[in-house]
Design goal:
The complex is a heterodimer. By secondary structure, chain A is mostly beta strands. Chain A is about 0% helix and about 55% strand. In chain B, about 35% of the residues are buried. Classes of the chains: A mainly beta, B mainly beta.
Chain lengths: ~120, ~110
Amino acid sequence: QVQLQESGPGLVKPSDTLSLTCTVFGDSIGSFFWTWIRQPPGKGLEWIGYIHSGGSTDSNPSLKSRVIISVDTSKNQFSLRLNSVTAADTAVYYCARELAIGGYRFDPWGQGTLVTVSS
Amino acid sequence: EIVLTQSPGTLSLSPGERATLSCRASQYVSGNYLAWYQQKPGQAPRLLIYATSNRAAGIPGRFSGSGSGTDFTLTISGLEPEDFAVYYCQQYGHSPRFTFGGGTKVEIK
């Protein structure tokens, strides 16, 4: 059974870079698409971007200029970097596996990690 | 960008009642690739339905999905106490690759 676990600082200062890592347990990170999704407190879900184990990546146009997603297959991890953060980036950040065969969806999800942007 | 509008915002029902949740897209949803998720407080979303009508592994039969094009529906045939939660729809498209609806909260009446 595949499980995902987010890790990283829970507090980031404005204008700094948010850095999170997602570790995949129970299966190889190879051959799938891996995704970051966020949810501001009390609000809905926003897709941030994905990376394939082969290195191809894409991100939401609303965040594209600030987002870098990378993968480390040797550690079975993928990572998110979000530059120049503001209070609007305060959210619970989830990592998830994207499945495509039969229909595009996210399953499973990590438990999520709250990142607060504040000085 | 395809915008998903969910209605109603809140649905107040009693256990055992039928819940009907709507998700309307601003444009045609490619391949009817529309998924539904359930989220409880403090938890990550859980996949319920994908490709409009396919139940995910382990999801009870009381959950069903239907629709096509721009109009989609999630039906819970008889609400169990554990079904009171927020439900989100999600579509696969282009630029951005995925968007979510704003959510429908199903609360106990």
